[in-house]
Write a sequence for this structure.
């Protein structure tokens, strides 16, 4: 049956990526439970509040980029090469701007939430941490997404089968790591 062959192919392409995602998710959880992260959470009021929103928006913003690029490849309007193409450039710039904007927005909403409930918090510190974490995650996620999508596509993989787990894994693992970097950078500045 043709449907069975299609399902097998999807599993063949997606299963290795999902298994790597599982292991990386366990690493991310370990990092989140580390002494360093717990110290950062204790040191920065509101960090635990903004963490889920930050991680979730990485998947939303960069998952959209992956879907847009995958669709462009399937339609033939984007070539699976690294060159200056208007559609590719626009998609990358839009996702970068969206990622940075949503990072700052999360910091501001977190600060307002803390202020409303009398929990304190420092707006500049939260925005600084989120700008650092947002910028680093944007650069990493865009670079890896382009590489995975283009190289995978040239090797016969359907980007639709692999991009979801890749985005989720990168967003979780590196989102937590880059929040720690943001705490270190902003803590050293303030």
């Amino acid at each position: 049956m043709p449907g069975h062959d299609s399902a097998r192919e999807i599993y063949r392409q997606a299963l290795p990526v999902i298994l790597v995602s599982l292991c990386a998710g366990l690493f991310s959880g370990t990092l989140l439970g580390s002494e360093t992260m717990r110290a950062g959470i204790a040191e920065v009021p509101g960090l635990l509040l903004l963490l889920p929103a930050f991680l979730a928006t990485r998947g939303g913003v960069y998952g959209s980029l992956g879907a847009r690029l995958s669709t462009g490849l399937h339609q033939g309007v984007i070539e699976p090469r690294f060159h200056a193409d208007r559609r590719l450039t626009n998609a990358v710039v839009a996702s970068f701007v969206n990622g940075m904007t949503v990072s700052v927005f999360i910091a501001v909403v977190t600060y307002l939430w803390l202020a409303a409930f009398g929990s304190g918090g420092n707006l500049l510190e939260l925005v600084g941490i989120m700008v650092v974490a947002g910028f680093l995650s944007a650069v990493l996620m865009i670079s890896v997404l382009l590489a995975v999508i283009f190289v995978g596509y040239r090797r016969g993989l359907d980007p639709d089968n692999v991009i979801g787990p890749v985005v989720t894994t990168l967003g979780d693992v590196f989102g937590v790591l880059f929040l720690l970097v943001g705490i270190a950078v902003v803590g050293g500045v303030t």
Remarks:
- The mean pLDDT is 84.
- DSSP finds six helices and no strands in the chain.
